[in-house]
Amino acid sequence: MKTILMLTDFSETANHAVSYLTSIAGQLGTEKIILYHSTHVDHPDMIMITDVLVPIPSERYEMYKEALIELDRIKTKFELSFEKSLSVEIITDDRPVIKAVEEIVSLQNVDLVVLGLRGTHDQGKNSVGRIPAHLMTRHDFPLLIIPSLAPLGKVNSIMLACELKAISDRLPAVQLKTIVKTFDASFYIVNVNQNENTDAAGFIKEQTDLHRLLDELQPEFHYVQNKDIVSGLLEFADLHQIDLIVAVPKQRGLLERLFHESATKKIAVKATRPLLLLHKK
Description:
By secondary structure, the protein is α/β, with parallel strands linked by helices.
């Protein structure tokens, strides 16, 4: 993770994400951080990255100038937190956030995109926000989502939330192995089964593939019974004090189900630990 793109809207949630990234960037061997803030205005009550309502200054120049001041403050925090030299680039413009992320990732060979998430819910329905939802479901770059309650500190344990289905086709094993080795973390592989009626032959095949791909990491394998996948995963994470949850979201088409039905999204909302989304290219 040499080059990281950090999105910020200067909210408390985004500032916490900055603090979290500061606490782990040394483990990642990060050489460059790109700080990005969009001044794009859809309408006067525009909802920014973490669903914070942003007041619109009367003059766009004032908005731009204020953003530069805040970005420079964050840049200084990163630079003071590293013993070795770290390149920090600040960018602010009026591109829509999604467009800006796509272009920056492509042009600057970004290894990881990072953003904060407030992690609230409304009347039982999960509420991630438009921009995180889009980044989670429609892009294949690594995305680190940092809940507002995520504790600061190094990553010593990683949990892969694993669905035993088409492992060979869907699991980004090379990327996952690189991440676990980079953090030098203990590694848990957790599968939650919602019912006891499983295809035994298919289960054994997927298990075999999983061992073949990841045994070199010396993981602990855990198979949990729970009617709710998200609850099963998060209960395990709490019990074993997992520092980072890794998930591989299913690919969905344009006519995907409503996003609040996604287990990955529920994890993002309910978790108090960072969630890293990976995709097999």
